[in-house]
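Before the break, one more example. Copy the sequence into your notebook; we will annotate it together after we see the structure.
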Amino acid sequence: MQQIKWFDRKFKFPDEQNIFPSIIERLRGTPVRLVDKMAKIQEANTTVKVENNWSIAENIGHLIDLEPLWQGRYEDF
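Here is what the structure looks like once it is written out:
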């Protein structure tokens, strides 16, 4: 199944109310998926920047920084 990139996603709440369970489940499963994926990558490769984009470590750090925000939104739902 092809995933839609987060920033390419368009939310039409009146038409797609059934999307919430999928989003919540995706967010809840992120830590487990990250641990699994990171176990397969050499640590030195996690800080490499490709074409001046964020490294793997920077992306994960960003997710960790935003976790309190997502927890609050989850509770709002």
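The mean pLDDT is 84. The chain has two helices and no strands. Try to locate both features in your own notes.
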